[in-house]
Structures are given as C-alpha cells and as structure tokens.
C-alpha cells in the first residue's frame, strides 16, 4: 500500500484523548496513526496569545530537528475535521519503562537516577520525584531550556522500547518571558558536554538561515529573538541552569 500524503490525505478521527487540557484527538491518515489538536479546540490562556499553541508545537519540532536529537516526533500543521491544527505522529511507548517516577524517598537508587524533590503523598508518606540519568533525558532537558518549556510533566516524556525518549505536548513554549517549568532538574549546575553544546550551536546558526525563516511563520519576531538569546546565554554559561524567578520551577500536576 502506498504511503499517504500526510499533508493532504484525509485525516479520520478515531478517538479523543480526554486527559488533555485542549481538544486532542487520535486519528489516522491512511494507516498512519496520528494525534490531532485543532486550533479551534485550544483553551484560552492568560499568558499565551489565543490560537497559537499548535504553531508552537510545530516550532518545537523544527528546533528539535535543528538540534539533531529527535526529541519531538514529526509534527506539522494541516487541515482536519475541525479545521487547521497540529498533527503529530503517534508514538507507542513501552509500558514497562518509566523515565520519570514518584518513589518512596528512602528507595532512591544510588546510581542511574536523579532526584528532583521530596514531598509527602496523600497518606503522609515521604516520596521523591526522580528521573533517569540518561543521555536522552539530558538532551531533552537542554531542549526544554532552549524552547522555554513551561509544561514538561512526567507524562510528557515517552519512553520508547529502544531506549529513545520522545517529548510531547509543546504548546506552552517560546514565551518571551522566562517560563521554564520542568521535572528534569536533576543535572542542575552540571557542565554541558560537547554534543549538547554542538546542538545549541546548530540552533543558533539555523536561526540565521532556514530554521529562522520557517519559525517566522509560527512565532513572533520577539519570540524568535528571545529564543536566540536563550541559546546564547546557555552556550556562554556552559552548564544546566538553576530555577529562577518567583514562579514554581515544576509544573502542576507533576504528571
């Protein structure tokens, strides 16, 4: 069977993802399974311009491509049953793996994991938020800093069977003001490695070329300028940043 044209072939809805805060549907284009988020189904937000979340999701994919790390699954804008929206290739994660988890505070492994915070659960027991200490999650953490991700929840990280980690749900990105809220704080203050620095350089260089031209259709000029400034600051610092400002450093809920 020939591969359908993902831009123009019919998009058929097969279900709705009811846990999402905006209208989110499961669909198919031929035999290709996709996620579809129509712009018409975006809930108004006080701090992000109305009707821009789908554009930000596509912009996040373009930055992911420039980094070269495959953080964000293939994402694009197209028409659908409820009008124009974001479409993304569905990823079947491995249910046996958890890249981020809440565990008993006295059971945090000594190696292979990073602890982000501790707190009490609904029964008063001490628990710890942890994430794996892996190159894939380090790259995602760098990506989140660059795109100013305001909503990196644990469930927005898809653990694939082959060890790859995909990040999804990037509507709350690229704000001109500092908005970074993430569960991936485990490398706070650690030096970036050469691979991570090279990725930042690819984005900075791309903003002067094709990446910049493509982002101009999705983000404001000020948002692109602050994206460039974040890359420059992170490259100069050469290490994972610490939380800053008065807002929470983690999203809520965490998952």
UniProtKB/TrEMBL annotation:
Superkingdom of origin: Bacteria
GO MF entry, a single one: kinase activity
Keywords attached to this entry: Kinase, Transferase
InterPro entries: CHP03843
NCBIfam families linked to this entry: SCO1664 family protein (TIGR03843)
Protein name (record): Phosphatidylinositol kinase
Origin species: Arthrobacter glacialis
């Amino acid at each position: 069977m020939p591969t359908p044209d993902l831009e123009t072939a019919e998009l058929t809805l097969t279900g709705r993802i009811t846990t999402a805060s905006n209208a989110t549907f499961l669909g198919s284009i031929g035999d290709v399974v996709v996620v579809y988020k129509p712009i018409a189904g975006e809930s108004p937000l006080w701090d992000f311009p109305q009707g821009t979340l789908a554009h930000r999701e596509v912009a996040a994919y373009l930055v992911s491509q420039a980094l070269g790390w495959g953080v964000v699954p293939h994402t694009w804008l197209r028409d659908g049953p409820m009008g124009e929206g974001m479409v993304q290739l569905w990823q079947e994660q491995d249910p046996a793996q958890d890249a981020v988890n809440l565990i008993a505070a006295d059971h945090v492994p000594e190696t292979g994991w990073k602890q982000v915070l501790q707190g009490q659960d609904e029964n008063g027991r001490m628990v710890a938020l942890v994430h794996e200490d892996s190159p894939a999650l380090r790259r995602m953490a760098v990506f989140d800093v660059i795109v100013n991700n305001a909503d990196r929840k644990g469930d927005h990280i898809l653990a694939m069977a082959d060890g790859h980690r995909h990040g999804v749900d990037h509507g709350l990105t690229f704000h001109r003001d500092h908005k970074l809220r993430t569960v991936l704080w485990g490398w706070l203050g650690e030096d970036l490695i050469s691979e991570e620095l090279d990725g930042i350089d690819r984005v900075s260089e791309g903003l002067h070329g094709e990446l910049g031209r493509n982002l101009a259709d999705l983000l404001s000029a000020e948002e692109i300028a602050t994206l460039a400034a974040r890359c420059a600051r992170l490259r100069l610092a050469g290490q994972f940043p610490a939380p800053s400002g008065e807002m929470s450093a983690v999203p809520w809920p965490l998952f």
